[in-house]
Give the backbone structure.
Amino acid sequence: MATEAPTTTVVMEQHQPLSASLQAILQHESARDKLTLNFLLEQTEGRGIYLVFVLLALPSVYLPGVSVALGVVLMVLALAHAFNKPARLPKFVGDRALPKAAMNKVLGASVRLLRFVEKIVKPRRTPWMSWRAPRAINGLIIAWMAFLLALPIPPVPVPFTNMFPGYAIVLMAVAMMEEDGVMIWLGYAASAWTTAYFVFFFGFISATMLKLIHSLAK
């Protein structure tokens, strides 16, 4: 009689802390050999997709030059989540091994940040957090933040264009994962602030360019 192949899925408890979930995944034998985005998606089911959002958002804050690519990936996954579609990336993206040296740096910083966040995040449930419509709206907000993150804007003259949307995504994802009906409002506030920040600076830059064009035309 054929024996059933052992499963490689990392089991995550319902309210296991994010930092512990992250360490459990990264200590898995397959992750040590080759860490890919599709591996993370396969190992994190249900609420674990929010952990993937965190893992993709934080490198954009800590590592320069990756925000465009990771922002696009985040946007695709967030839209799939918003419309209740399976989270899976094409092989040429999802099965590509992530650079170990850079990811070790990011993941170490991620664990420290998550341990700090866990001190204030609690499963403070409210009925509407489990409704389909708010979950879809939250996914669309993350997709919008990911779009802003993916914009190829240099840090000069507009600073913090990676930090603000990156941290807004982290706050939203952590609150959704822990079903924290209080923390989610901080995520909404961070997302609103980030949107206002981009609108202000785009308006400022546009007005400056128009004045410059008018002055040159005289």
The first helix runs from residue 18 to 26. Confidence is low (pLDDT under 50) at residues 1-13. Residues 74 and 169 are 10 Å apart (CA to CA).
